[in-house]
Structure formats: C-alpha cells, structure tokens
Amino acid sequence: MKLMRNEWLHVAWRQLRPNLIVVVLVAMGLLGMALAKKAHAQAMSTTTVQGTLYMANGQTGSGTLQVSWPSFTTAGEQAVVAGNTTVAIGSDGFVSVNLTPNVGASPAGLYYTAVFYLSNGTTTTQY
Do residues 21 and 72 share a domain? Predict the structure, then answer.
C-alpha cells in the first residue's frame, strides 16, 4: 500500500503522540521540581527574638508588642517588604517574635521599631 505524504504524517503522528505526551509530562514534572526547589531556596530565613519583659518595679509585664520595619534587601539579596507584626506578651512576661535579620542589609542603617502596649496602660517604644 502506497501512502501519500499527508497520510504518512498522520500515521507517524498517531504513533508518536503517546510518546510525545509522556515526554511533555516528564518535562513539565522536571520543570515543576526545579521551580519548587528554587522557591524553597528562596525561603526567607528568620531569627527568633525572645525574652521576658520586666517592669520597672521588677515584676513581669504583659500586653502586646507591635514590631514594624521598612523595606530592605537582606545580605543574601532577598527583598523584604515593609510591614509589621503584633504578638502577645504573656502574663509571665514572655514574648517571642521571628524577624528577618537586617545585618548587612541594604540600605544600611535600617532598624526595627518595637512598641510595647502594656497591661498597666503604659506604652514604650524601642528601636
């Protein structure tokens, strides 16, 4: 049986199509794994800042802590957008917050601002 050019292409396509689909799916899977690996590598590292808050009279304080920061680029070239976070200060004075390190960041000289809203009604700001 003699096949014309168009018929030959249709026969070849029918034979290659299942393999082509497998190749495309494998390629998409590899691309997805590469993107997932890159996204994982770009995960922002943080440092836990924690401690116990004591009032001037020596007793533990409680309330809330609001920490804010400007936009900066970490020493590892990761962009941090400006933002803030609020955490509770426990009745035992314990407070813990995760922050992105700004040592070696750009622009230099940026700092976090911590505002303590204490249960006795006082407010204190630290930089």
Answer: no
Domain boundaries, position 38: 1-43
DSSP 3-61: PPHHHHHHHHHHHHHHHHHHHHHHHHHHHHHHHHHHHHHTPPP-EEEEEE-B-TTSSB-
Tens digits of residue pLDDT in 29-49: 444 544 444 444 568 889 999
* Inter-CA distances, 3 with 12, 16, 18, 79, 84, Å: 11, 17, 22, 61, 71
Whole-number Å distance between alpha carbons of 61 and 20: 67
Cα 21 to its chain centre, rounded Å, is 35
14 and 53 belong to one structural domain: no
Q: How much is the pTM?
A: 0.65
Cα→Cα distances 85→30, 64, 71, Å: 37, 10, 14
